Amino acid sequence: MTTLVLDRSNLEVRADGAALALYEGEERSGTVPLKLLERVVIQGNVRLDTGVLTKLAEAGIAILLLSKRQTRRVAIILGTAHNDAAIRLAQGRRVFDTAWCDAWARRQVIAKTRAQIRLLMDGLAARPDQRKPLTDAIARLHQALEGLAQEGIGSASIRGIEGAAARSYFQGLAALFPPALGFNGRNRRPPRDPVNACLSLGYTLLHFDAVRACHMAGLDPLLGFYHRPSFGRESLASDLIEPLRPHWDREVWSLFRGHVLRQDHFTQDKGACLLGKAGRAAFYRDHEFQAPPLRRLLLRQCRILARHLKAESESLLAQDEEEEFA
């Protein structure tokens, strides 16, 4: 276990030495050693005090708070930040380097588009009856790659190509799901069908892992290069998960294809599609099985980027010292 999901009403969490003790009413229902945990996801009416938060922070365990019904992210709580400010200094400098940001954006979107093509190609092999919508979408994604291959393309053009490619991709992806699910393309805030409900929750968890990876590597998750810095948004985390979104799309397809999730796991409320408790349990079980490779990839990418930025910053700081004592 690396993730503890707390998704029961009237559950209380108490600190107990090097462990968390779980109580339902006054009855102790379980104990989880802190050394087994990397993250905690909390949804619903869970009670805990600052002693628990302190224990988790000291152990470097990240916390994701989700809204009770719509599984919308409310907050992320992280422990002590990385102490090397040199990394963040160089990161902030690169945010204003247009050529560097454009090259970064191009790489991320190319990787995402290639992953989308692979998924739709696998979908075509599994669903030859949907050949027309899938081959049409694949062709348009290849056109997007041709556009992205242009040298010197700027972020505004990249965003335009990515947006058009996303529309084509989701039209193709929709062909893989039963019409009864009502999935005709991407929608959110709130998601209006079961597939979009699962995509949104999966992306939320993936983004949480990206924020955590940035934090561990000493990067500032707010300072993105493709997604520009914006109030309250972890833009670098958004950058990092772009190429990984199709991997989660594949898992959502697998969940419905294998009938792990069914239509009766969902309810509708004021235009929002809500994943029920039994469905969430199945979802989280599958997610915890599928997520580790993506988490390792995110952390590896963050550490590589941090090493690169640190080397840049140390060079700049050394120049400053030479000028100061010249």
In short:
By secondary structure, this protein is of the alpha/beta class.
CATH level 3 topology of the largest domain: Four Helix Bundle (Hemerythrin (Met), subunit A)
The averaged pLDDT comes out at 90
Low-confidence stretches: 320-326
CATH level-4 homologous superfamily of the largest domain: CRISPR-associated endonuclease Cas1, C-terminal domain
- The overall strand count is 10
Strand content range: 5-15%
Percentage of residues in helical conformation: 40-55%
Biggest sheet overview:
4 strands, mixed
Give the number of domains: 2
First and last CA, distance: 56 Å
Strand order of the largest sheet: 1-5-7-8
Compressed to H and E, one letter per element, the order equals EEEEEEHEEHHHHHHHEEH
Quickly name the level 1 CATH class of the largest domain. Mainly Alpha
Spatial shape: flat
Rg, please?
Answer: 22 Å
Based on secondary structure, the structural category is alpha/beta
Known CATH architecture of the largest domain = Up-down Bundle
**How many DSSP H or I helices?**
9
